[in-house]
Amino acid sequence: MADISLGIPVFNSARFLDELFANLCDLDPLPAEILFLDDASEDDSAARIDRFVAAHGGALRARLLRNGRNGGIAAAYNRLAREACGEFVQLLDADDLLADNDFYARVRPALRDDTDLVVTALRSNAHLLDVCSRMASAIVPRRPPAWWPLLGSFATRAGVLYRRARLLELPFPEPVWPGSDVIHLLRLRSEGKCVFLAAPRVFYRVHGDAQSSRQRDYGAYRRALAEFNPPTRLMHRLDLGLRTAGQRWMR
Is 57 exposed, middle or buried (0-12, 13-18, 19+ CB in 10 A)? Predict the structure, then answer.
């Protein structure tokens, strides 16, 4: 069975860490390792993680990496991928959680040699997003066609398990821009097989500092869609329209 590394980038995330720590301690089974990366936080995030690793790091196989200066979220994702030891890598933002304590038991059977990406469903504290995701995830095929939109409507990037070798070949684009994670996933999907699982879920927290709570310019995203075939462009533009309408409603 493929090993999974859980990478958690942290920047000024102290207010979310106690809940995250409890969530990690409740997992059964555990991932092969848990890597925290403090991206030069200005609060006491690193000190909190240090104490957690000292108390639980052995049982959880957890360790803390540090950046001397803030490199941004894409650089943090890419460093975590490089430092990981697992065949698959999941990148969970510090303000998100795994919604099921048996998340890895549910996801492991899908980590096959012929699969490069496993995308899991989402839950959210934003009621509209949660309801829509619950309803919509039931219609997503287990092997979705390349044009089928996944991130945003059905899943969050934190719910993706990437084959580490593919992520090293095609790292996250830097700097990030609104929708760059969707384009990155589409590029990976164009050359590798992707599985969608509706049962294991990641809890995506919407709050005042979350990207989904802000008005964003998707011009670069629309331009990047031009590299894909017409069905992919059409479906992702439709999906973007629905998502931006939902974000305006939530704001």
Answer: middle
